[in-house]
Amino acid sequence: MLPLVLSSPLVFACSAKSNNKPIEGPTQAKGLQEEQGNTPEVEIGLSISGSVAVATITNNTATSLLFHSAVQVLDGSGNDVVTPIVGPDATVGAGATSSPFSITIPTLPDGYHEVMLTVLATNPLTGIEVGASGADHLKVLGGVTTVITQAEWYHESGANVAVPHID
Description:
Layout: H1 2-7, E1 15-18, H2 27-35, E2 42-49, E3 52-59, E4 65-74, E5 85-86, E6 90-92, E7 101-104, E8 111-122, E9 129-141, E10 144-148, H3 150-157
Parallel strand pairs: 1-2
Antiparallel strand pairs: 2-3, 3-7, 4-5, 4-6, 4-8, 8-9, 9-10
């Protein structure tokens, strides 16, 4: 299961919270769930300070779950900037929120980076995987790291640049 988590950014129907500004990623899944009056099965609280990502996991299911976590640091094209980081496992009771846990982010090269946390668990009763992902965004300039908004990252990182495909 973990190699799948680390192979590419995963998007689940979830909710993510950030101290930067509430991020709406994965936006459409959250919005649709709220419009339908559903509570997301899993929610992430994420904040980044310096080289540490601090997170919580809220398990809105009726079953205690063991979550596996991983962090990816991506550039504007979705490529890994550093090797994905395996985070701690966290058992979260039904309807509960985990204690905050930290994942250290290595020194990053200058540029604009998206730090994506993904958590994943398999429901022992149904065998169905549940999870969530959330992101914060960083600018590194001259070795100084600054947390920035998703909008600033989007406009400054080149993530919004269309590249024509030529055969």
